[in-house]
Design brief:
By secondary structure, the protein is α/β, with parallel strands linked by helices. Helix content is 41%, strand content 14%. The protein has a six-stranded mixed sheet, sandwiched between helices. Strands 5-4-3-6 form a four-stranded parallel sheet. The protein binds pyridoxal-5'-phosphate (PLP). Pyridoxal-5'-phosphate (PLP) binds next to helix 3, strand 7 and helix 8.
């Protein structure tokens, strides 16, 4: 397959803005800092998964699928966008969510319900009683069994279900980010700017891998730097192997070694990835507030707030010496998820935190 002629089913809007961040650049005192707005990919409040879905949906249509099923945490952004893409193409949206059904509807889940997708909560909490060595395998097996049962159920009703892995982590999905590179290079040329770094979150890794492959194939003049969004991140070796699969599938003509990949995890005492996947933490919250105050751009608490903490820390310490682009991958609906709303009450809405909040109350004598 040739990457240049690979067809896409337009799901979101590409050619997202590349904007200069003057106030943030001044505040941090390093190079000129830019933001690539993939939070503005349009589809269902936007985000990076739209670029992946362009190619995944094309594959689904070419192969006669009638339903898109995918997986994720209860607040998955990828799930929201997959459901939206399915709806736009007349396919059935099915989400398999890892975790118990929350009592309170919020964040992405509210949007999933508004879109009317079929939701399956896979609750594996009972596995906590097992010895640690067996726990993850037992959870994984149960999830796989559930997925098989769900697919069989739809097939019995005449549907053909495309099962998309967590995060849309497939070679077709990453094609979207390979092709984001010429777009970004053309924008840099048009604006006459010369960033040395492109900083991006590293979660299910398809975004980073696609960008890395695109940068190698198109000879981008910047380095792709990945920031893991949780302490327990996917090993570089697996990502290098996936990038080599991209190279083979799309005849990109390079090989990638694990040591070629640049991941920045931050100081051991305060890693960029925080304390766990989608776990609220005050450092991430501070960095979400920093960008909102500097540039009026909203980040999210699960991914981009952490990546932005890494981005600013690397600029401050001079590790990224030169102009740099931050890729905003979306996720803002997570700000309104119950757990993050609760966590932000104390930092933004109590006692000293309220220094800019005034109440003026009419009193009738
Ligand atoms: C999925 C996601 C990421 C991570 O992208 P991967 O391709 O999974 O590594 C980053 N930011 C947001 C908002 C996401 O939803």
């Amino acid at each position: 397959m040739n990457i240049g002629t690979l067809k896409r089913a337009p799901v979101g809007c590409v050619n997202t803005p590349l904007e200069y961040m003057p106030r943030l650049s001044r505040e941090l005192g390093g190079g000129r800092l830019y933001i690539k707005r993939d939070d503005l990919t349009g589809l269902a409040l936007g985000g990076n998964k739209a670029r992946k879905l362009d190619y995944i949906v094309q594959y689904a249509l070419e192969n006669g699928y009638t339903a898109l099923m995918t997986f994720g945490g209860v607040q998955t952004n990828h799930g929201r966008l997959t459901a939206a893409a399915a709806i736009r193409y007349g396919l059935k949206p099915i989400l398999v969510l890892k975790g118990p059904r929350p009592d309170y509807l919020s964040g992405n889940l509210l949007l999933d319900r508004l879109m009317g997708c079929d939701l399956y909560f896979v609750d594996t909490e009972a596995a906590e009683v097992l010895p640690e060595a067996e726990r993850e395998a037992a959870k994984r097996r149960y999830l796989e069994d559930c997925a098989q049962a769900i697919i069989a159920d739809y097939e019995a009703r005449g549907e053909k279900v495309l099962s998309i892995p967590v995060g849309g982590q497939t070679v077709h999905g990453s094609a979207g980010y390979i092709q984001a590179i010429p777009e970004l290079m053309a924008q840099c040329e048009a604006q006459d700017i010369h960033p040395k770094y492109l900083v991006v979150g590293y979660g299910s890794t398809g975004t980073f891998a696609g960008l890395w492959a695109g940068a190698a194939y198109y000879h981008a003049p910047f380095e792709v730097v990945g920031i893991p969004i949780e302490p327990d991140y996917r090993p570089r070796e697996e990502t290098a192997a996936f990038i080599n699969r991209l190279s083979e599938t799309f005849a990109l003509g390079f090989t990638c070694r694990a040591e070629d990949l640049r991941l920045e995890t931050g100081p051991a005492e305060a890693p960029y990835g925080g304390i766990g996947y989608n776990e609220p933490d005050p450092v991430t919250q501070e960095h979400i507030a920093l960008l909102a105050r500097m540039e009026a751009v909203f980040l999210d608490p699960c991914y981009t707030g952490k990546v932005f903490y890494g981005f600013t820390d690397l600029v401050r310490r001079g590790v990224l010496a030169g102009d740099a682009v931050f890729l905003h991958t979306g996720g803002a609906p997570g700000l309104w998820s119950r757990e993050h709303l609760d966590a932000m009450q104390s930092s933004l809405w109590s006692g000293k935190a309220e220094d800019r909040v005034h109440v003026m109350k009419l009193e009738i004598p």
